Amino acid sequence: MILISILVEIRPSSSIRVIQFIQVLGLQGQGRKSKKRGLSLEEKREKILQIFYDSQDFFLLKELEKLGPKKGVITQSVKDVVQSLVDDDLVSKDKIGTSVYFWSLPSCAGNQLRNVYRKLDSDLQSSKKRLTELVEQCEALKKGREESDERKEALGKLKAIQQKFNELKEEMGQYADNDPAAFEEMKKAIEVAHAAANRWTDNIFTLRQWCSNNFPQAKEQLEHLYQEAGISDDFDYLELPAMVPLGPANE
C-alpha cells in the first residue's frame, strides 16, 4: 500500500495501470489458494482405515465406495486403496457365499505392526551377527598376509607360475584336433548320426511301400511328391566310411 501511494504522488497517470495489475495478481493468487489439494495415497489409506476403525464392522466393496467420498476419497479410487491395504495385511477380506467382505480392527493393525517389528528386529539381529562373523573372518585372513619382502617374492613367483600355466593351456588348445579323447567322442557322434540317418531312411522306404500298396492309382502324384521332398531315384542307405587312424601330433 505504501508503494501504491508513492506511485500516485509521482505519476498519477501510470499509477492506475499499476494498481490494476497488482489487483489482477492478487485475484490469481487467491484463486490458486482456493484450489484444494488432492489426497495422497497414504492419506487415502488412512481415511479408509478410519472407516473400519470407527465402525468396527464388515463392509462390501460397494458400501465402501459409498462411504469413501464422505472421507474425501473419490469412488473410483476406493477399490485400489482397499486392495493396497489388503496387500499390506492391514485389511482382511473373505468370501462368504457370493459376496466378498472386508474388515479391519484396531487390534488387528496393532498385531500386524508388532509382527512387522519383530521380523525387522530379528533381521537386524541376524545382520549384526553376520557382520561380526565377517569382521572376525577378515581379521583371521589378515594373519600371515602382512606386507613383507618374503610375501612380495612369493606373490611374484605365483604370478609367474600362473602366466606359464596360461601359456601351456593355450599351446594345448592348438593340438585339440589331435586329441585322442576328442577323436573318440567325434567317432561316437558320427556313428550315432549314421544310425539315425539310416533309421529314417528305412522309415521312408516303409512309408513309400505303404503308399504304393494303398494308393496305386496315385502313383504319379506320389512320385511328384517324393521329388519335391528331395527323395530321388538314387536315394539309399548311407555307408559309414572307414575312419582314418589318428596320427602323432607332429605329423
List the helices and strands and how they pair.
Blueprint: H1 2-10, H2 12-34, H3 41-55, E1 59-60, H4 61-67, H5 75-87, E2 92-96, E3 99-103, H6 106-142, H7 149-173, H8 180-214, H9 219-228
Helix pairs in contact: 1-2, 3-5, 4-5
Tell me what you see in this structure:
The protein starts with a helix and ends in a 23-residue tail after the last helix. By secondary structure, it is mainly α. The protein has nine helices and three strands; from the N terminus they run αααβααββαααα. The longest helix has 37 residues, at 106-142. Helix 1 runs antiparallel to helix 2 (12-34). It is flat. A hairpin with a 2-residue loop joins strand 2 and strand 3.
Element order, helices and strands?
HHHEHHEEHHHH
Widest sheet: strand order?
1-3-2
Q: What is the gyration radius calculated from CA atoms?
A: 44 Å
Q: Helix segment count? A: 9
Kindly state the mean pLDDT as a whole number?
Answer: 80
Tell me the overall shape.
flat
Total strand segments: 3
